[in-house]
Structure prediction request, 358 residues.
Amino acid sequence: MSSKYQLSERHQNVLRATVRHYVATAEPVGSKTIAQEYGFQVSSATIRNVMGSLEKVGLLYQPHTSAGRIPSDSGYRIYVDRLIAPNESWGRQLEELYTQQLDWGNCNIETLLQRAAQILATLSGYIALVTLPQNDNNNLRHIQVVQTEAQQVMLIVVTAYQTQSIILELALPLEEDTDTEDSIAGELQLLSNFLNHKLRGRSLSALSSLDWGEIDREFQRYTELIRAIIDQLNQQTQLPPSTSIVISGISEALRQPEFARVKRIQTLLHLLEKEQEQLLPTIFARSDIDGSPLGTTVRIGAENLLDPLNSCALIAAKYRQKDIPIGSVGVIGPTRMFYENAIALVEAAANSLSEALS
Prediction:
């Protein structure tokens, strides 16, 4: 998108200074301010001419006739694509900060992602979003079947991302076929061992491929129970999680002057709270799952296809488990964004989550 703009070094420097000043102050920028505050060895009249040229090609504009100029979406795009450079040293410091503040070992995946979103929102000042891992990559780690009542068992399922328990009602009580509670518990443990042997490491979406012909004779009378277990696990892949995206920092966003308009913030909040199924593909494009490079997505203003995001900037990066992208972390803020900081923060969060999950 930005290749059509051929800018001299002076034009690039004036555009960079204009973006940085406007991002810092939220006030239109005049040529005198640029000349005085950014070390240009030329007159403000020369700067004014350069700013006029940048306006003619659509990179700056005047919100009012008597006002200074502010960057357009195209101006921000040039700034992001050409005028900033990653600070690798700061990126490493941010990753260390995430590692210090996140307790990887003592919480489940949703708590971990919520904490990561909170840290990102606090550090950036924008709305932070972290998508939950996608079910297609949610591999089974352990299954346990435990009797709770005569005709009821609890299925405990441990996946790569969470632990959950499911109650299954039985057509017949287990006592009819066994002598003692100990023998029932023993058989259910053998059944659990068998299921772990058959299913451990499989993704939930691949469970329908279980070969029923290989069920050992000793488990024949548990065939219906096993079928019920597999059916229940298959259902877990078809139901969307209660929350597809962990969101934090809405209160931070409300402090931005761009969100002072009630209608603008209402449409954004409606998207975040009620229409996450539309937002999810924007943050984590499923078509990119197959071995795509990690990369960072920056969408500015009208580059966002969803109307509530047309006046926003969205920055997102994928987090991975063993080189497989399973989710994304990102921020949403006004187009008047500290892009260098936001990009570094998002990438550091994605890298930290990838390290933890791998």
